[in-house]
Structure formats: structure tokens, C-alpha cells
Amino acid sequence: MSKAGIITLVGFPNAGKSSLLNRLVQNKLAAISPKPQTTRHNIPGIITREDVQYIFIDTPGWVSKPKSAWHRALIHRSLSAMKDSDVQVWVLSLRQEVPVLPPEVEAILLKAQGLIGAFSHGDIISPQERRVQISTFQTQLHPYPFKAWIDVSFDQPTNTLLNAIADLLPESPFLYPVEELSYLPVRFFVEELLRETIYTHLREEVPYGTEVQVTAYKETPTRDIISATIYVERNSHKLIVIGSKGAMIKKLGIDARKKIQNLIGKPVYLELFVKVAPKWRHSSFYLRNLGYETF
Question: CATH fold of 186-289, please?
């Protein structure tokens, strides 16, 4: 009998969840950046191997002390995915200490039926520190019902994790066609690549106050034509995103276009606009218009 199920990749910002998703599916689905809050949506990636289908969902990083409606919306997205999943992979960076869990997250994890601890970033610390950190995490987190502890650092294979997950998945027919990589539309991943590009080129607080929305996407036989808006919270940030004589917006467009062309496999015409949405992270109106649920 085949197996299939939903696996959430959860944890705090910068733990390595998105990198792990991309490694598992062997494709770049999730934006990668050393800055926190790069992942803002639940991002699915599907693997089908022999008689097991894994539906992975990369989730936004938990915020211990949410300071805005946006932070609360991110936590809600992660919680919703966790509640609907068969297995929860808690990605723990060996470069970080265990912060205080949001109460809602702690309540779900304490009752989790398929919880796996996955250590990341062990390849960039010393072997001694790696051993000590793993032992410390296991001691500190002993109240949680982990089914397995696995090192998923870049110098470790992913097969061990996949085998442990397979043991916890329910018997089920496949939920998606075997060739399917994700069930979200291409324009979603275009937004991810644009967000990654912004996080790569902009500094300090500017990336956190930006959001991206694809407003038009037209496919043609020879190239795709895309329009997207970058929202910022302040007019001063708009000037930074545009840059002197349009230099920064041009750089963002060139870099993002290359990434999108690699994704879809054909030329792209990309048009970018910048608009000010004052305090959008604190505004239910703006958050709803940008696809967030508000509370």
C-alpha cells in the first residue's frame, strides 16, 4: 500500500527551513536570504519516491513576541499548516539557542503525533560544538514528543530524514500526480523570487517593510509578460528601492528576470512599480489586500 501525507517544516526565522525544502525537492521553490522573515507564505513542495508521496510545506518562522498584525498573520499561517499536517519537522539551527516559543505553537507541539527534530548548520561549526549543541537541544526540549532526531546539515544526506518521515505517514493513495512539484501557480513563485532579490540587494530595515504582488501575468509562446508592484511603508524607502536615476530598480529587475527565466524556461519581460502603503504591516486593510488573514 502506498503512503502520502503533509509534512510541515517549522521553526524560528533563519533556521534553514527554506534551504531544506529546496534541497528536498531539488528545485528552488522558496526564497533564501540570511535576513529573517524572508518566508511569508506556506510554500508547498512535492516529492514522489516509489510508494511514498511527501507534500512538504515550508512555513513562516515563529515570532516569539509579535509586534504587529503582520507578525500575528505569519504565526497564524504556520499554525494552520501544522494543525493540518501528519508530520512536523522542527528545524533547529545549531548556531542558535532555543528562544521562547509562542504559547499557541507550544500547545500544538506538545500534542504533536509526528514530531521530528532536524538539526541544521552543523557543517559551519566545529565538530565539538556540533556535538555539544545537539546534546543541549535534546536536553532542553525533552518535554516535547519527538519521534526522531536527525542532522540535516548540508554535509548530511536527506535520505535519513525522508525515511523517518515515511515511517510516520499514513497509508494513502497519492494526493497529486507523480510529476507534480507544487500545486501553487507560477506567479506565486515569481513573487518569491522578487522578494529574494529585494532581500539580497537592499539593506537594514528596508526589506522587512516591503511586499511584492504580481498584478499581471500574460503567457505568450515566445515570452511571458509580467507586471509586479513592490510596496514599501515610507516614501524614503521608495526612493531607496528606485535608487539614484533608477539604478536600484533596474538592478532588481535584471536580477529577478534572470531568476524567473530560469524558473519558467523562456524569456521574460518584467515591469516593476513601487508604491507606498503606509504602515501596511499594521493595517488590516493592506494586509487583506496582500493576501494575509488578519485577527
Answer: GMP Synthetase; Chain A, domain 3 (3.30.300)
